[in-house]
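User: quick one - fold this with zinc ion bound?
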Amino acid sequence: MVLEVIVDLSNDSIDRTFDYEGDDCPLGSRVAVDFGSKHLIGFVIGKKETSSYKNLKKAKYLDSPVNDEQLQLMDFMRKSYNLRYIDVLRLFIPSKLREERNPEYAQLFLEIDKSRTFDELIGVIGTRSPKQAECLEYIREKGQFMSLLINLFGASAVGGLRKKGVVKESLVHERSTPMELCINKKERVVLTEPQKHAVDAVTDGDGVYLLHGVTGSGKTEVYQNVIENMLSKGKTAIMLVPEISLTPQVLGIFRGRFGDSVAILHSNLNASEKYDEWKRLKTGQAKIAIGPRSAIFAPLRNIGVIIIDEEHDTSYISDNNPRYDTRTVAEYRAKLAGAPLILGSATPDMETFQKADSGKYHLLTLPNRVAKHELSEMEIVDMTEEFRMGNRGIISDALKTALTETLNKKEQAMILLNRRGFASFLRCNKCGYIAKCEDCDVSLTYHKDVNELKCHYCGRRYHMLSKCPSCGSTSIKQGRVGTEKVVEEIKSFLPEARVLRMDNDTTRVKDGYSKILTPFSNQEVDILVGTQMIAKGHDFPNVTLVGILEADAALYFSDYRSSERTFQLITQVAGRAGRAEKEGRVILQTYNPNHYVFRFGKSYDYIGFYKKEINARMVTKFPPFTKIVRISVNSVDEQDCLDSTKVCYQAVRELEKEYGKFVYLGAQKSPITRMNGLIRYQVLMRLVPDMYYQIIDKIYKIVDSNKPKKGNIFVETNPQSLT
Ligand code: ADP
Ligand code: ZN
Ligand code: ZN
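Assistant: Sure. Structure tokens for the protein plus zinc ion:
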């Protein structure tokens, strides 16, 4: 039989099938092949009786990791996003299966030395190593895999125990899951009417459901009940959560309810652990896949429901090869399986809400918080007023007082410093004025190298400002405050406070998140100062104050979604205050207290915000009323880059003439003109959506036949940023 094989090499020139001779096997099978001088893994995606090539080489069958439904999904993604076969196929298989070697593995398992009493062992450890004692206590009853122990107690504690000979080691062929410890058995609750309605609707329905409800309104409870109903029908489920909210708490709740039926596809797992969880799903031992966006590729059959929690989260968009939007992929996979898709959020993506509003999606609403307290009202502090009163610091007097009071009550605070878009905009400190593009109504970006302001959507350039056109003040500055600066300022009026920072720098180290969140959750820290990453998913009952600094920083980011992102961010972080017994307070600092984002944000009025914002999008012709398409060209050689850009631009111009569906079309250097040694250009357009699918296919063809010689080219729709 002739097998049509995709080999495991990512390269444009071999993005097609190669014929091999082999035994009949299902499509999606994995084979070992000789390719040129290389020995490679390949995937069978077609079969035929004869080939037009002679003397075919042999393909050796290994196994069948990819099923038909996944192959259909692969095809859909390839066509929708203009991706290579192999780049999509790799999404479906754990990295262990990219080697021919048998992926089964054995792991070191540690138990206490039972020939001595526990007290004797503790005596051997001594009093100077409390971590080792803690670890020994943990494995006292049942033992544990070494990799998990290292995760929990650190390599040096585990190494210490082994050196001191207080543990027995053995090789065990069994699965280990790093989340084993955190099983959290919750009492069953009686669903509220809106929850019950949502569960029933999804259980018997199909299509896409938007589950809209503020934090704490009981969405997770709805997910669990729907999953339970699907399992009882003999079906399986996928639940996606943003990486950052994949916390032990959340996983513990699901493990507590569904036990070993849950497989976790966390990116922190090592290759063996990932393979192991993958295999449990593949063989049907596990029926629920929980993970970040990659879990949408889980090897499940007979899917009953797919859930995307916090559906507005940007982590669902992959903006590196292979580029895709997980929500679109999930919608297609759900349709293939005949299963409903639930998109859950307190602050849905504007496009998602518009689809629900227009009846394309079903809208389910959980109007109230289940918990004792309603969401804390936001107090808005006008920073231009602070400036006038002589406060040149980052923290307002109101927030200083509130922080002091909170610490006096032995409660905790979180301070969010909004960093998004910071480097780029200019602001008048006196009146809060921000320069915007006259054509696009998005904020201009300051380009230091040429000392100019630029619009990233249309390329229009403006002179740098020397004084504020609105009030004449020369105190016009590029804002740039770091979390260190905030901590410093807090220390100046609260020298005793225990403060930790959480940002890109402090979390980059191994286990960075838990090194910060664990002491905060144990109340060994009073104030947590952080960027966006503190906004999500965490549940700290003793946090009663949330401060938001530079609330408007994201508003000035040169992005048509800046208002939407700001609304999402402030309502999310505000939801961290007063989650348990104690009432919370939120103080938001801004230079634009009257901006509609804050007017609606103050009372968590998503619908009010949505109505205002969707109108603005319609007027300015931004998504969902258009689709923004960007062709990115890069090359080591500027001329090469420019040549390819020009040809593509001309070809798109022809499309514009033919279809007339363009709101805007232009070509320019990318805002960041050089990245990783490559020169970058882009062709940018906005299309009226009704002919999008026809036009985008033609654009893919244009791009594929005009590649730069010393670089690459790709197309994105509604890209996350235009940098
Ligand atoms: P969300 O996912 O919308 O933030 P959760 O589902 O986590 O909300 O619910 C918030 C809290 O309220 C949880 O502690 C949950 O156990 C509890 N809860 C949810 N639904 C109910 C209910 N019907 N009755 C009592 N408690 C509930
Ligand atoms: Zn513009
Ligand atoms: Zn001014």
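One thing worth noting: The first strand starts at residue 2 and ends at 7.
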